[in-house]
Amino acid sequence: CECIPEYSGNPYEACRPECVLNAECPRDKACIRNKCIDPCPGTCGQNAQCDVINHIPTCSCLQGNTGDPFTSCRPIPQDTPISKNPCSPSPCGPNSQCQAPNNAAVCSCLAGFIGSPPSCRPECILSSECLQTQSCVNNKCTDPCLGSCGLNAKCLVINHSPICSCPPGQTGDPFRSCYPIPLPPPTAAPPTDPCQPSPCGPNSQCLASPGGQPSCSCLAGYIGAPPNCRPECIINPDCPTTQACINNKCTDPCPGTCGLNTQCSVISHAVSCTCLPGYTG
């Protein structure tokens, strides 16, 4: 898993944009389209300077200039004649327009701004100024879901942010496309094994015949017939008197039992060692 472009975080938990609120950016930046950027470009007018104070751009005319810093500042004339235009300079404040019918200033807010002069302002600067189900985009409170989620995905707005998810029964990337969860292929019933459980008894092996029937036989080293397979011997009396039961086998117990220059004889399964003629020990 990996976060989609322009999102960061742990993709196994949650990926998020660089910012949602201005407070997540430095004080000289604002959160615009989920990016911490300088809000000044395009905000102030000609011959005006822009200062960002607590994420909000503030425009002011350059020294020696006057006018509306949001539209245009002009040099202050050295010898200012008595103005006969009541709108020059404008008494209406920023984000407003001045008209002079009957030689009297009439102020109104510019299109797209609310309030009343001299306090005209945009509809919003921060998303917190909008309803919880809206976000501040281009100074307008709008539905942030539009165009945010992929095909067949659903969008919920939580604290001004769009949250995309696939609906129940679907999977995929909700930012690109959701599709129905494919059903698992039907599984065939496993064939029955006639040797599970084994009908052959202990010390035996079971093999399934081509006809599906169990075929029983004793394991190597065991005698008898299933289900009564048994070792060659368990105790010495199961063997001839000249042999002993060793590891369930009737074997000669002499090898390795007696010392050098001795002879070994087996009497009733027991080993008897004697020195050869002419030897003692």
TrEMBL record:
Domain EGF-like stretches: 83-121, 191-230
Keyword Disulfide bond: yes
UniProt entry keywords in alphabetical sequence: Disulfide bond, EGF-like domain
SUPFAM superfamilies registered for this protein in UniProt: DPY module, Growth factor receptor domain
InterPro entries: Dumpy_DPY (IPR048407), EGF (IPR000742), EGF-like_Ca-bd_dom (IPR001881), Growth_fac_rcpt_cys_sf (IPR009030)
Gene Ontology MF terms: calcium ion binding
UniProt cross-references to PROSITE patterns, sorted A to Z: EGF_2, EGF_3
Protein known as: EGF-like domain-containing protein
